[in-house]
Design brief:
Layout lengths: L6 H15 L3 H8 L5 H7 L7 H10 L4 H6 L7 H18 L6 E3 L1 H5 L14 E8 L7 E8 L8 E3 L3 E5 L5 E9 L10 E9 L3 E7 L6 H15 L7 H11 L13
Antiparallel strand pairs: 1-5, 2-3, 4-6, 5-6, 6-7, 7-8
Helix pairs in contact: 2-4, 6-8
Protein name: Helix-turn-helix domain-containing protein
Organism: Wansuia hejianensis
GO molecular function, one term: DNA binding
């Protein structure tokens, strides 16, 4: 195990998730392939650390991720935070399983967004704002431009790298924004953030969480961004194309008489 392993967090999470699910500890031990009383024994022996196979099986049995099991103190979280944990974990898992169709919005693309002749910005998270910003002069300078008003940095936000969006139900969209302070020192680690927002028609844009949050959600936000960023580098085939390819693989190149199954 690594230095980051905290057995107490893992055991507390096991206890919490068992209580939430109604599952018995003996049932969990059976599913994890260990003897009855194993969890009790490792909890009493400070020197004993569980193996990775046990951790993987416990996480699977309790329907959670290994990162959450080992690093997120579920019992200390609010119900809303635990709700978001489930949401972020499913997003991460479904992305790894190649089930989600994420779209990339590059920093260059977002930085070039402008208003139309009526002052409208064609992006649900961007708006045209006038505000004061730090400058090379002694006093802040008044600027006007299209910006993303982030939770972390307000109007003074720049796009730092690739951002991603995902269409959800009823034409709602989930956004992962990779941002920074618009003006910052080179070595300022607090000048960068990943934020997750949701846009819903009729409601507007709503902030959900970020990797700057004090809560353990920060780790899950960072992990999700890394997963999506990596997965979007690989090819993904849409269902309608898979149907055509699958038909060809079965030596079927004739036209369907009925409607296609999508």
């Amino acid at each position: 195990m690594t230095e980051e392993f905290n057995k107490k967090i893992m055991l507390d999470n096991i206890s919490f998730l068992l209580n939430e699910s109604g599952k018995k500890i003996g049932e969990l031990e059976t599913e994890a392939g260990v003897s009855t009383g194993y969890i009790s024994r490792i909890s009493k022996d400070e020197k004993t650390k569980p193996g990775i196979e046990f951790i993987m099986k416990v996480a699977e049995s309790l329907n959670t991720s290994i990162d959450t099991l080992l690093k997120v103190e579920l019992g200390e979280m609010t119900p809303t935070e635990r709700y978001l944990v489930s949401f972020l974990e499913k997003l991460n898992k479904d992305t790894l399983d190649d089930r989600l169709d994420w779209n990339i919005e590059s920093a260059d693309e977002l930085q070039r967004v402008e208003t139309d002749m009526n002052g409208y910005v064609d992006h649900p998270l961007l708006s045209y704002e006038t505000f004061y910003e730090e400058s090379e002069c002694e006093y802040p300078e008044e600027v006007s431009r299209v910006v993303f008003i982030s939770k972390s940095f307000d109007c003074r936000t720049a796009i730092n790298g690739d951002c991603f969006n995902l269409r959800l139900k009823n034409n709602s969209y989930l956004y992962i924004m990779n941002i920074s302070k618009s003006v910052h020192n080179v070595n300022d680690s607090d000048a960068f953030a990943k934020e997750i927002w949701m846009y819903t028609p009729g409601v507007g844009a709503s902030y959900l969480c970020s990797n700057k949050d004090v809560s353990p959600l920060a780790l899950l936000v960072e992990n999700l961004y890394l997963t999506v960023s990596e997965r979007t580098k690989h090819p993904r085939i849409k269902n309608e194309l898979k149907y055509i390819i699958d038909s060809f693989m079965e030596d079927d190149i004739s036209d369907d008489e009925e409607e296609l199954p999508f």
